[in-house]
Design a protein that fits this description.
Layout lengths: L1 H19 L18 H11 L9 H16 L5 E4 L2 E2 L4 E3 L2 E7 L7 E7 L10 H20 L8 E6 L2 H4 L1 H9 L6 E9 L3 E9 L5 H10 L8 H7 L7 H9 L2 E9 L16 H18 L13 E6 L3 E6 L3 H21 L5 H32 L14 H19 L9 H22 L7 H16 L5 H26 L4 H14 L1 H4 L5 H21 L9 E3 L2 E5 L4 E6 L6 H7 L4 E2 L18 E4 L9 E10 L2 E9 L6 E5 L8 E4 L2 E2 L17 E6 L6 E8 L4 E9 L17 E3 L7 E10 L1
Parallel strand pairs: 3-22, 5-6, 5-7, 7-9, 12-25, 13-26
Antiparallel strand pairs: 1-4, 2-3, 4-6, 8-9, 10-11, 13-14, 14-16, 15-16, 17-18, 18-23, 19-22, 19-24, 20-21, 20-23, 24-26
Helix pairs in contact: 1-16, 2-4, 4-10, 6-9, 7-10, 11-14, 11-15, 12-13, 12-14, 12-17, 13-16, 13-17, 13-19, 14-15, 15-16, 16-17
Length: 766
């Protein structure tokens, strides 16, 4: 009994250690030696640059830029500004102002670049984490590095870009227009997509990652959180960073370091100084110092490779790497060992077909039941709590409690279905089912998702436990628990990573993974006599977790409800509407839309884009206000052969932050320049905007006083119709309106146009 209790304790401690190793548990203070990174020193700078929203073109944006420049000058550097118009592949035009500096090395070698961005997301995001944390990580890291007084071998280029949030425009400007770009051999990029949790290392490479991973291991960061599965998933998602531009346009390799937990704060007013997890900032510091010291001296001519490596982190061993070429041999060896052990088990009468069948029934029932409950359970919760849909991030404020709820219920289900399986000698037979499933999964991974092939490692340790059961009558529970440790070290963090990284809709993946882990831990769990008691215990704690989530489901000042309101004025027919993106109206939006608003389907024909393709949900009539109309001038209207050329200049008569242009797909454009920049044309397209979506041509992010100048050519006899939308983010302060402030338990909704005065005007060229 004591041995089994000790085995359970080892399992619990292994799970705890698997998460504890992901983050530093204390932060460095102001007394930290000057040649070391200090989180508290970095926080002093963060407080200065995260006072207010500082999106590209805003007055606060200029203040933040000036502050960063002054901090670089304090380090003895000579920062320079790079400015110019660029347009992204998404059709977003902006005029970023990048902050650049360079530390000269002792050799004529490739340079190391430290990269982040300093703009916050329009319009209400404070940007403390995204990416103020990156800015202060670099500033404090550089200060500590320079305090040693040693000159690096490689030049160090500092790039703090602008307009990342608009479409990676600052990175595009640097990579494609600055002569320093060709000198860079490697980039370290610091980012955020939340306000807490461990910082994941994600590689950006056009080739193999072998040399990058060898160098990363040699640098030996203290708390590495990196696995080749995470990057495989990252590449499937629409989450590009500045580093993507370096890889895509400059063929420059690099590492991203990004934290993704507390995703509900991302791009909101809650991304502020107070909400940034201090241990998370310490984690970024634990990356930059060893990597800066290592790569400032390393040969950056040799970071490219044609070979790929599997990599994953594990407590006490940091980062484990091995070549992709090992994947198939390791898989085949595991299958051969499994078959050999099966044969051995039957020959020695250690395996019984009846018990094996019972094991398959229990495992399959656990897997299917848990999968169904978690999949439909989350859908049911969205019906019970429709307000959760207002969090476009896909992760609720009480999301971590829901992870606990589904994990505990899954454990309860697993113990329940294994409740009648206890016999003194049948645990080996029960192991056959999970090992069979794991080998099938590892085979599929080896063929389709090679980055996850390190999942075979836990299988080897379970095969060792399987052998122990076949060899010994009364295996040592302590030894069996030790053999479960690698499974928990490697796999347990993924139970949380999937829903945190991909949203709570992925709770089904967590539940399935818990059952799969449970199967590999059967050497310990299978020997427990009273499994149904364990099931009741986990059900009880699961219900407790559910009620905790329920009691924390309300919106409060600490967990505010995102909502949206837009005033849209149609100058073509002199009508106006209030509109919202909200699915559930509240006391704030009902003031304008009423309790029974009409659906806003008509507004969604041509409308501002959003990250998650959110459209207006409701609209209601609004009073027509005397909003100044943009001044539009047509010039240089000329026909040459079968092509008509003309220029259009749009001059805002108010302070606007964004313009967006639409045109029906029947309108063809042979060429299109916007403020001197050629519009994005997909490779192989004969026309500009040839395959545009939802009639959108482009977005222009406006700085004060800027005009929109277009040089266009179209077919000779075409009547060209353009719809111009002009938006300002001043609805709450605009003199034409009296908008009450939001209550303390509300914030502006991110990812959509919000708190905006929107004016629509059609431009027709006959």
């Amino acid at each position: 009994m004591l041995k089994k209790a000790l085995a359970i304790l080892i399992i619990i401690l292994a799970v705890y250690a698997s998460f504890d190793a992901l983050l530093p548990n204390k932060i460095s203070d102001l007394e930290t030696p000057l040649n070391q990174f200090s989180t508290e020193r970095a926080l002093i700078q963060l407080a200065e640059i995260s006072k207010k929203p500082h999106y590209t073109g805003s007055e606060e944006h200029t203040k933040v830029r000036n502050y960063i420049v002054s901090e670089l000058e304090k380090l003895g550097l000579e920062p320079q500004l790079q400015e110019g118009y660029t347009i992204s592949k998404w059709g977003n035009l902006a005029k970023p102002i990048n902050i650049l500096a360079r530390i000269k090395g002792t050799a004529n070698t490739k340079a190391l670049m430290l990269l982040t961005h300093y703009d916050s997301n329009p319009h209400s995001a404070i940007g403390a984490s995204d990416a103020g944390s990156g800015v202060v990580t670099i500033l404090e890291g550089l200060r500590a590095f320079l305090a040693d007084g040693k000159q690096p071998k490689n030049d160090i280029i500092i790039g703090i870009t602008d307009a990342e949030e608009l479409g990676l425009n600052g990175a595009d400007l640097f990579v494609n227009q600055h002569h320093w770009a060709k000198d860079i051999g490697l980039v370290l990029n610091f980012e955020a997509r939340g306000s807490g949790g461990p910082s994941y290392m994600l590689i950006e490479t056009n080739g193999g990652n072998a040399n990058l991973m060898k160098q990363f291991v040699a640098a030996n960061p203290k708390f590495p959180v990196a696995n080749s599965l995470a990057y495989s998933i990252y590449k499937m998602l629409p989450n590009d960073t500045d580093l993507t531009v370096f890889r895509r346009d400059g063929n420059i390799e690099g590492f991203n370091f990004a934290f993704i937990d507390d995703h509900f704060d991302y791009h909101t007013k809650m991304d502020n100084y107070e909400r940034l997890d201090r241990n998370t900032l310490e984690h970024q510091g634990s990356y930059i110092m060893p990597l800066l010291h290592h790569f400032s001296q390393a040969n950056l001519e040799q970071v490219k490779s044609t070979e790929d490596y599997i990599y994953f982190n594990v407590p006490f061993f940091n980062t484990v790497i091995y070549p992709f070429s090992w994947i198939i041999p390791m898989l085949i060896l595991a299958i051969v060992l499994f078959i050999g052990l099966i044969i051995y088990g039957f020959r020695n009468r250690k395996l019984q077909l009846k018990a094996i069948k019972m094991g398959f029934n229990s495992f399959l029932l656990s897997l299917i039941t848990s999968g169904i409950i978690s999949y439909f359970g989350w859908s049911l919760l969205l019906l019970i709590y429709p307000e959760y849909k207002e969090l476009l991030h896909g992760f609720t404020y009480n999301g971590h409690t829901y992870i606990w709820f589904f994990v505990l219920i899954t454990l309860a289900i697993s113990f329940m279905f294994y409740g009648n399986t206890y016999k003194a000698n049948n645990t080996a037979s029960l192991l056959v089912a999970p090992l069979t499933f794991w080998l099938i999964i590892c085979t599929a991974i080896a063929l389709k998702l090679e980055g996850a092939s390190f999942f075979i490692i836990p299988v080897y340790f379970s095969l060792a436990a399987f052998f122990v059961f076949l060899k010994q009558k009364q295996p040592n529970s302590f030894l069996l628990a030790i053999l479960c440790i690698p499974t928990l070290f490697i796999l347990a963090p993924f139970v949380k990573m999937f829903p945190v990284g991909l949203g709570l809709k992925m709770l089904v993946a967590s539940a399935v993974l818990v059952v799969l882990i449970f199967g590999l831990c059967l050497p310990v769990f299978g020997q427990l006599k009273h499994k149904k008691r364990w099931s009741y215990m986990f059900f009880f704690f699961g219900i407790v977790a559910f009620f905790m989530a329920h009691f924390n489901s309300a919106f409060t000042p600490d967990t505010p409800k995102p909502n949206s309101l837009v005033y849209t004025l149609d100058l073509d027919n002199n009508t106006a509407l209030w509109a919202t993106y909200d699915k559930t109206l509240d006391s704030y939006t009902e003031n304008f839309l009423g309790s029974t608003p009409k659906e806003a389907s008509e507004l969604n024909k041509n409308t501002f884009g959003s990250k998650y393709a959110s459209g207006y949900t409701y609209a209601s009539n609004a009073p027509v206000k005397a909003i100044p109309s943009p001044k539009i001038e047509l010039s240089n209207d000329t026909i040459i052969n079968n092509t008509r050329f003309f220029n259009i200049c749009v001059m805002p008569q108010r302070h606007v932050q964004r313009m967006e242009l639409f045109s029906d797909s029947t309108n063809l454009f042979k060429s299109f320049k916007i403020n001197g920049v050629d519009a994005y044309r997909a490779k192989g397209d004969s026309l500009v905007f040839q395959n545009r979506k939802r009639n959108r041509l482009f977005s222009f992010y406006v700085e004060k006083g800027q005009m929109l100048e277009m040089q266009i050519s179209v077919p000779k006899n075409q009547t060209t119709e353009l719809q111009l939308f002009e938006a300002s983010f001043d609805l709450l302060e605009n003199k034409h309106f009296s908008i009450p402030p939001r209550s303390p338990n509300m914030i502006p909704k991110p990812f959509v146009l919000n708190d905006a005065v929107l004016v629509k005007k059609t431009i027709t060229i006959e």
